[in-house]
Structure prediction request, 81 residues.
Amino acid sequence: MTTSIFDPYFLIITMGTLFGIVGMQTNNIIILGDDQFLALKEDELVKANLMVKLKEKLSLTILLLFNGCILFLNKDSIALR
Prediction:
């Protein structure tokens, strides 16, 4: 993973077809990634024996709470309120 030059807690991975972006906050992590990246992340968490909150997936019918805001999906965009 590569660290952003603007934010050390914003990580980007691009290896072959693997793609993922991870934004870390004090008590929240938001991830944008393809299925291959998410499977790799799950495998690494299991190997490290780390306990994490259950994964929530944003959809048209499921809103997410992130960093004190509501993240929701519109037809063509993602919005934060």
